[in-house]
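Today's session is about reading a structure prediction critically. Students often jump straight to the picture, but the first step is always the sequence itself: look for stretches that repeat, for charged clusters, for runs of hydrophobic residues. Only then move on to the predicted structure, which in these notes is written as discrete structure tokens rather than atom positions. Here is the chain we will use throughout the hour.
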Amino acid sequence: MPYTEDMRFLALIGLFLPLAAFAAVPAGFPSSSLWLSKTALVGGESVVIYTVIYNSSDEPLTGAVEFLVDGASIGAKDVSAAPGTTQIISREWTAAEGSHEFSARLTGANTEVTASVTGTTTVSVAPKPPPPESVVKTVEAAAVLEQTIASTTPIVQNFASTTFATTESIRESAVKALEKLASTTTKGEVLGAADEAPAATAEENAARAFDIGGWIQNVWHALLGALLFVARSSLWFYVAAGAVVVFVFLFLKTALSDRNRYR
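Below is the predicted structure for this chain, in token form.
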């Protein structure tokens, strides 16, 4: 089919038609210039609202684009478009159940604009679906657990206070008993020392070094000192008490296990 002048004319019209649509708006919003990132919305979802500013004038365009939902502002963003350019502006919004109207307007423009307000886009937001039954049961269980903890906290605190007071009383009694025992042992040594006895010879001192009774007495002194150190320190006392409890538990567990094995 030959390429005629009429076809060339139609081609030129198709090429310049988009420019002609914008040329009708020297500066401002083109027609149908507001859209959403999605239209099938559910309550609580986030959606992005978009619009576009076109500047076909010879001067830079500055101002602010304000987004409106049901006529109320949800925020504004500054805009600056050079001559012959467009700029896309967006704003995020959390969907609320129901039907809503979206629009945008250009405020504070430094030059005269033809269209300072976009058209209105209406979108219906569906209700938020109920949570799954498993989630509901989990939340209910968490609430019951929280109430249980809240109700038992005073009891636990009283029990802990009573237990601490009891163990501290035991520790203080142990300290007094060990101090008394150590003092008695020391006094016995002093009283037993023969102040008027003659000085021991080298052979007697050597024999005393190998005396079993003296060795046992030294061990006893060391043991008393260690026990007294542990009893005087709250930290080491509770560490040692915990170690004893664990040892007794393991011992009883092993004994019961062996008993059941040989039945």
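Discussion point for the tutorial: The chain has a mean pLDDT of 74.
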